[in-house]
Amino acid sequence: MGAYAQQGDKKSVIKLFYDMKLRGFSPDEYSFLALLTACSNSGSVHEAEKWLSCMKDDYGVEPQLQHYTCFINAMTRDGRIAEAKALAMKMPFEADAAVWRSLLTACAVHGKWAEVAEVRKLMRRRGVRKEGGMSWIEFQGEVHVFLAGDRNHERMNEIYAKLAELREEIKKNGTQRGS
């Protein structure tokens, strides 16, 4: 179910959900997370709302933070930013970085820069920190991890010297599209 959900294949996730029930299996929190993810990734915010509301009443599964996060993400993708923010403030869980990231991204995508600033202020007030970026590369059988702003890599001086060299070469030669 999870693989279909990540691809936004809502139809397959729903089919598996009902097949599972027909075979005597009870849906659990992960089944509903797959349903909500599929709805979010396929743009079916109204259907996501239906699944979230029936979890406890119809199936006895208590919605958790990740279920609310998924629904908030579905709402922001649909442009329902104000509603998503209101839900983030009133849901029975403290909004985590994933919720705030979803709100920030939606505000930016929809060009609501004043709201981006407002969400960032709320994040600071609540002590939520955005996680820094990370990259990694495997070179000659060894994995090298780089964190945004980290200056602790054992070959940091070599890396930054090479970056400066490349930057100068690009400035000198210019760049060409498609290269």
Automatic annotation (TrEMBL):
Keywords: Repeat. PPR repeats lie at residues 96-130. GO terms for biological process: RNA modification. The keyword Nucleotide-binding does not apply. GO terms for molecular function: RNA binding. PROSITE patterns: PPR. Transmembrane segments: none annotated. It holds the Pfam family PPR. This is Pentacotripeptide-repeat region of PRORP domain-containing protein. It comes from Papaver somniferum (Opium poppy).
